[in-house]
Amino acid sequence: MLNNSNKLKVSVSPHLVNKRLLTPQIMWLVTLSLLPAGVASVFIFGLRSLWVILVGCISAALIEAVIQKLRGQKVTISDGSAVMTGLLLAYNLPSGVPLWLVVVGCFVAIAIAKQAFGGLGRNIFNPALVGRVFLLSAWPTYMTTFIKPFDTITQATPLALMKQEKISNLSEAGINYMDLLIGNRGGCIGEVCIIALILGAIYLFYKKIITWHIPLTYLVTVGIFSWIFGLKSALFSGDFIFHILSGGLILGAFFMATDYVTSPLTQKGQIIFGIGCGLLTCVIRFWGGYPEGVSYAILMMNMIVPLIDRWVKPKRYGVK
Amino acid sequence: MIKLSEHKELTEHNLIRKAKLPSKVHIPLIQHFGKPCDKVLVKLNDFVKTGQMIATSEGGVFSPIHASISGKIISITDCPHPLLGRAKAVVIESDGEDEKIYDLINRNDEVQAYSAEKIREIIFNAGIVGLGGAGFPTHIKLKPPKPVDTFILNGVECEPYLNVDYRLMLERTEEIILGMKIIIKVLGAKNVYIAIEDNKKEAIELFRRANLPSNWIIVVLKTRYPQGGEKQVIKSCLNREVPQGKMPFDIGVVVNNVGTVYAIYEAVCKNKPFYEKVITVAGRGLTNSSNLEVRLGMSIRDLIDECGPIKEEPRKVVMGGPMMGIAQYNLDAPIIKGTSGIILFGKDEVVEVQERFCIKCGECVTHCPIGLEPGMISLAIAKDRLDLAQEYGVMDCIECGLCSYICPANRNLVQAIKYAKQKIEDKRTKK
Ligand code: SF4
Ligand code: SF4
Question: Which CATH architecture has domain B111-270?
């Protein structure tokens, strides 16, 4: 016989427990999925990139903790989002940057792009990208000096060479698709080793943390656009594989454009977002002032997410 | 809609068995959608028989209420109510005899000649209400103000744990088919669908093998929550939607769930008032999780004892399914007409997780069966912007619980929505 009812918990439905991934687990799993690219970068660019990564993660977490302490809020670094931002920022830096620059970038990312908006979930822009773009405009030289893989000398990225019309195809840069896949090219720490990034992305798909809507539309749009306009001399003959595999596109499409907070709510909206990112990336790459457009493209699309969410609504039951 | 972990296995293969006759029942005067039965037909110390009408009303939406055991009326007073907290109820102390007021007959053949009006009257007098959800009086539902050409038997039973409709379909197949024939006649429906999810293979098989009229269609649906909702099952079966703010009959459809159809069969063909129903009593902590045929008014405690002994002290007791049911704090609360189950949750099945800010993952938006944006609604409610919540369609929410169930930020979405709906409703009635 059951005696007393006073131990019974009363709460609103639903009562079924769901062993779903919660916010912190999602953040940490995304961080985990990024690790292969980090490990690869240490091989490619040496220990230097390890220091950049560590400083990025640690300073991002510390800055978040300090800000939350100062504002008398609960410190939420255990939810993993600050570390993830630090890591993503580090991945968007050349391996040769001074370490203080990493800290400044983290400060901008966490303090300005995230906490000033009210913290995780309320920010409009992808914090890591805000950090990167700030550094790019404040210290352009540091941010565009890339180290040659397995070496200490500097080297321009294939995209930059293409932009300056020093080369017109990949082989003139002395590398092939395989080099792009394994990361044997100049570039930011986390963007070069495509294979490692794809590995992480597959894991995120498997865990159902990301869906195809943004990354696929983003990549396909860049592919089509660069096939049409990628070669200055003739239409419909651009090297689209090169354009998809170079720069920060793979990193951006799978790990940054997919950021929940700064992308549209609906799947239809996400498709629009992906296409928009793709178009802007190409416009910047081909006609803009920078060789690479992924960061700006995603940030610009971040800005219109509220608009997309306002116009692209889910289909309501029983409403025409 | 998504696939849930169903936990049906606890009672899936258990034959329906009759619960022990209770020594006392509390029969609330409100057990349906509509107004309470304010005309109590019995007095203190009266002797009543099983099936005797003890309360009714006049005019409006209600359904009369019957004694579920024979015995003495020992009080008519406020008692625990599983949904309302407390409500007026008639308390009957059993004389142990279970003496019926009606004769159980078999009038299957006679029924064919009954007029629709007569059948509705039998259903009304038997006190039948919709057993799938809100408990809307069935005699009213079967008198739609517009012509209806389609009837759907809702055998979806998408709530986890519950096997009431499933067991009824397996064990009382013929009776349900007879009940359907009665309904179809009353409605004059030409298109008949039997909707069953593909997790109920045996039931599908039984209906396929039964000798069904040629125009009846068995629709096997993919198992998805909350497909059993009236509007969802219509959409899944017919690929049509009930327009916002309208009722199924507006598009010529009536849906009844299996339990209701069975009750109609019993009333019309067997002359039996509705005072007894099948419910699932299940939980890991029970030695004998069961599908029980119980008398209305039995206490939750009696039923837990019936399925005991208890292996693990429950931490939460829910009346109804685990997605939409109501957590109970008083085990003296009685089974009412709409009760579909009693689910017990142990300590580790009741977890408390911290609510976080919405990370805009869109999961709730993708899966909401009504096409709402629960996350945005909850943010509007948090800012006290009920007008905005209304714009987002909060009043259309069917409270299926899916959004709270999947939200990675563990937002109390359903709680916020229920709160807002109440507030908005209050404001409307005050005007
Ligand atoms: S599921 Fe939760 S976190 Fe995701 S959008 Fe909905 S409310 Fe926000
Ligand atoms: S908003 Fe309502 S209808 Fe939509 S998933 Fe949540 S509870 Fe269900």
Answer: 3-Layer(aba) Sandwich (3.40)
